[in-house]
Every structure is written in C-alpha cells, then in structure tokens.
Amino acid sequence: MNLIWHRPPRRWPRLRNLRASVRDTLVLVNEFRGTLALFSGVVFVGGWLYRELSIFAGDRSLSPAEAVFVVLSMMFLQAQADFPDEWFRQLFFFIMPISGLALLAGGADFGVLLFNRRLRGEAWQVAVTSTYSDHIVLIGLGHLGFRVVRELHRLGDDVVAVELDPGAELLAEAHALGIPIIKADATKLETLRDAGVERASAIVLCTSNDAMNLQIAIKARNLNSKARVLVRLFDEDFAAEIQNHFGIDEAFSASALAAPAIAGLANKSDVSSPISIAGRALSLARIAITAKSALAGLTIDQFENRFDATVVLLERNGQSMLHPHNDTVLAPDDGLAIFSEPKTLVKITRANRS
After folding, report:
1. Residue 53 and residue 4: Cα distance in Å, rounded?
2. Which domain holds residue 314?
3. Residue 7 included in any domain
4. What is the pLDDT of residue 315?
5. Phi then psi for 41, rounded to 5 degrees?
6. How much is the pLDDT for 109?
C-alpha cells in the first residue's frame, strides 16, 4: 500500500480563488450599484436618444449598437463620428464628455478595486473565507495564536484567523502562509459568521481575556453545535470547572498551553510538546485510524519501520494494549499512541487522512 507523504492539496486553491473573486465581484457591484446603474443609463438611454435624433435628421445608417458605442466614445473624448450639422445632435458632443467626467470618479474606484483585490482589504478576506468549509477558526492572533495557526498550517489544515488589532509582523507572516485574517470584533455574531464558524470543524479561542474567550465560545457553540470548541483560560481552577460545560470540548490553563498540543486537539490528533532525548526532539501523539486511512491494513511492524516511529499503545474495542505485537494489523477506529519526531507525526497525520 502506497502512503501519501506530501502535503495534501488545500482543496483546489485556484478554484477557491475563482469562487472568492465571483463572490467579491457581486459584493463590489452591490456597493457601486448606484454609480453603475447611472453609467449604464447614460450610455444606453443616450445611445437610444442619439439614434432617434439621427433618424429624425435623416441619417438612418446608425444601428442601435453603433449609437451606444458613439455615445460611449463621446464620454471619453474619443468621438467615433463626424461632428453633425444639427444643433440637437451637436449637444451630445458637449454634454457626454461632461457626464463622463462626472461618472469617472466612481467608475475609476470600481475598476481599481475590481482588478486589484488586495485593495479590498477586509471584504476580500471575507470573500476568501466564504469558500472554506470544515476548516478551523482561530480567534486571537497573538503570539500563541500565531504558533497554533502555524502548526495547523503545517498539518495541512485550512485555517481562518480572527483578530481585532493584529500586530503588523504576525499579520504579514500569516498572510505569507495564505491564511485569511478577519480584522474585526469576535464577540459579534456577524464576525463569527464572516469567519465561517457555522461551517467550521473546530473553533480555537486564544485571546488573553478569559471572560471574552468564554463569551465567544458560547456564541460559537450556538452557531455550530457540532464543531470542537477549545478555549484558552489563564485560571487553572476555572479551566477545570468549565471542562465539558457550556458545550466546550477542551479548556486550557496557562500552565498547560502548547501550540502543538492545541493544534493537535483542533484537528483530532492530540500531540504533546516535544522533549529532547539524545539530541532528538520527540513528541507523543494520539491518533484514531480513519475509515479511509492509508494506515489501515499495515502491521505494527510495517508501520514502525516505514515511519521510524514507536507505537506505545493500541486501543481497540475499549481494550488497551501496551506495546502491541508486531503482527497486529491496524484497522479503522483503532486508537494509537505514537512516540516520534514532530515532523514524522505530521507525515503520519497526513497519511491517516488519505
């Protein structure tokens, strides 16, 4: 059985960008609907009127399309017709350029924003986020939050971050990873919806305010009853008390915080912080073999040799076996406790998803 060792594709990024562009264009058209409607009205009504007046003057050579084109070219001082003899048609050569200049400001803004999406700022980030589903929403892009985002990105997960006032350096690094950042107040339901909480697989609260984290966690749970909710709390006793209450799956005290551990819990592959043994950084991870896992069907011996990892525990049908026999064949729904280097655990996690 061949294992997938590379990072899984992040759900067709070109298609995602196309979908985001379509959505953002619709939003942009809605924002400029007044200007666009006025511009269209001037062009088409003006073209119709100019043709009717031309027919009245005895010139029947202009088609409707040509008349619209002539009026449009007049608006930009590029008249594609000879200067007429009739005063009522001559007026178009003076009125249309003035109308064009009056509409140019709004039209120019529309064109710039249409062809340079990055200038859309927050609206573009929301448009990209709208294409995400089954992703992880992280709220609080401080130093801990960014480390969690980086770990999740390294594991191949789709992540959306929410932060009201992100630091310039962390913001630039997150954008470099291709992660959408919603710069807004996460205590508002509108912000949570913009981040796609209703479609998310997990929500991670990493702000430094316990009360705010709990408030956002409850709102997020109301929007999505199926997602995993993980909350950072500085008060260790408080964290213990609310564990499994208020619909919260995990609550972390300040002393228990570790970015790899939080990232692992968010994507259902619990990973401990690395420890150094003989110069090698090693972590203990817990994973559950999925139904479509490339690991299913391997023996313990094959698994350990292929990944340079040690299986310290196998859980099957409610029974736990320390150091299972080498000939034991892995099956879906098996739980494994694995000891290995973090980079190897990333490969194992990816193979488990294939």
Report:
1. 71
2. 270-353
3. no
4. 92
5. -65, -45
6. 63
Bridge pairing between strands 280-288 and 335-340: antiparallel
Is residue 261 within 8 A of residue 235, CB to CB? The reply is: no
Domain identity same for 108 and 149: no
- CATH, residue 206: 3.40.50.720
Residue 63: HSE in the Cβ half-sphere, 13 Å Cα cutoff? 2
Q: Which long-range contacts (CB under 8 A, 24 or more apart) does 182-189 make?
A: 182/122, 182/125, 182/126, 182/129, 183/122, 183/125, 184/122, 186/139, 186/140, 186/162, 186/212, 186/216, 187/212, 187/215, 187/216, 187/219, 189/219, 189/223
**231 in Cβ contact with 214 (< 8 Å):** yes
Nearest alpha-carbon partner for 294 in 240, 348, 334? 348
pLDDT of residue 276: 59
CATH of the domain at 328: 3.30.70.1450
For 200, 209, 239, 259, 281, the CA distances from 242, given in Å and listed in that order, are 22, 15, 6, 21, 33
| Structure tokens belonging to residue 18 | 């196309």
- Please give the Cα distance from 18 to 131 (Å, whole number): 10
Q: Please report which residue ranges of the chain form alpha helices under DSSP H.
A: 13-31, 33-56, 64-75, 87-90, 92-115, 122-129, 143-154, 168-176, 189-194, 210-223, 236-242, 259-266, 300-307, 342-353
Q: Which residues of 36-60 are buried (b: 16+ CB within 10 A; e: fewer)?
A: beebeebbeebbeebbebbeeeeee
Q: What does pTM read for this prediction?
A: 0.55
Which value, in Å, is the radius of gyration of the alpha carbons in the chain?
Answer: 30
Q: Please tell me the predicted confidence (pLDDT) of residue 21.
A: 66
- Low-confidence residues in the chain, pLDDT < 50: 1-10, 255-256
In a domain, 53, yes or no: yes
What tokens does 319 get? 């029974």
Placement of tokens 């924003």 in the chain: 113
pLDDT in tens, 88-121: 888 888 888 888 777 766 566 665 555 565 656 6
